[in-house]
C-alpha cells in the first residue's frame, strides 16, 4: 500500500503499548522478556508508520505511575530504554524520523537524559515521521506544567488572563504545535486512558484491542486503520452536516 490508498489515514496516532507482562507470563518468561518483545513491536510499528507516511506517532513507553513498579522491573526498563536509544537512533535518523521525548525527564538518570537530548538534537532537522516517546509522562503532569508556565507568564505581565485561549493552552502542553491524535490505540484489553494525553484526546477516535502489545503486528495495525477509516468524525455537528462537508 502507498501513502494515498484511498481511505482516510490518521495524521497522528497515539498508542498505549500495554500487555508486555502478560505476554511474558503466558510463556512462563520473566516480565523483562515481555518488555524486550515490546520493543520489537514498537520498532515494527514505527517502520510501518514511516512507510505509510503517517505524520506523527506518540508512544506511551513509561507513565508517571510506572515508577511505582518494583525496583528490579523499573531498573530493567531503564536498561532497555538506554540500549534502545543507542541501538535504534541511527536507523531512525536514516528514515528521517524526528524524535521527541515528552515527560518529566529530570526523574531519569543523567545518562538517559543525555541520550534523550542527543537523539532529539541529531534528528531535529528531519522532516519525516514525528516520533514522540512519552516517558515519565502523565496527562496530569502535562496539564500542571502548562498551568505553571502560563501562570508564570500572567504574573510577569506577558499574558493577559482574559486573553488566554485554547490554542495557547495547547501550545503550553508537551505536544505543543502537533495536531491532536486522530486515532488512539490501546492494546492489552484494558479500556482506560491511564493518565495518557488528557487534553489532546478530546476528540480522538478510541480503539481498544485484546491483542497484547508484543503481538501487535502488521495485521493488527491494518485492523485498527480500517476501523478508523469507517468512523464518521462529527466534532459536534450532525451526520448530515458532516457528510456534506466530506463531499464539499
Ligand atoms: C506495558 O506493559 C509496558 C509498560 C507499562 C512499561 P505492562 O508491563 O503494563 O504489561 P501488563 O499490563 O502487566 O501485561
Ligand atoms: C499504561 O500501562 C502505561 C504504559 C503502557 C506505558 P499500565 O499497565 O501502566 O496501565 P494501568 O496501570 O494498568 O492502568
Ligand atoms: Mg499494563
Radius of gyration over C-alpha positions, nearest whole angstrom: 19 Å
Estimate the strand proportion. Answer: 5-15%
Strand order of the largest sheet: 3-4-2-1-5-6
And the CATH topology? Answer: Undecaprenyl pyrophosphate synthetase
Identify the overall geometry: globular
Task: Give the topology.
Layout lengths: L11 E5 L3 H7 L4 H22 L3 E8 L7 H24 L3 E5 L7 H14 L6 E8 L1 H17 L10 H7 L10 E4 L18 E4 L9 H12 L9 H9 L1
Parallel strand pairs: 1-2, 1-5, 2-4, 3-4, 5-6
Helix pairs in contact: 1-2, 2-3, 3-4
Keywords for this entry:
248 residues, alpha/beta, Undecaprenyl pyrophosphate synthetase, six-stranded parallel sheet, disordered N terminus, binds 3-methylbut-3-enyl trihydrogen diphosphate, binds magnesium ion
Explain how this protein is built.
The chain has 248 residues and is an alpha/beta fold. Helix content is 45%, strand content 14%. The chain has eight helices and six strands, in the order E-H-H-E-H-E-H-E-H-H-E-E-H-H. The chain has a six-stranded parallel beta sheet, sandwiched between helices. The longest helix has 24 residues, at 71-94. The structure holds 3-methylbut-3-enyl trihydrogen diphosphate (2 copies) and magnesium ion. One 3-methylbut-3-enyl trihydrogen diphosphate binds next to strand 2.
Provide a brief overview of the structure:
The chain has 8 helices and 6 strands, in the order E-H-H-E-H-E-H-E-H-H-E-E-H-H.
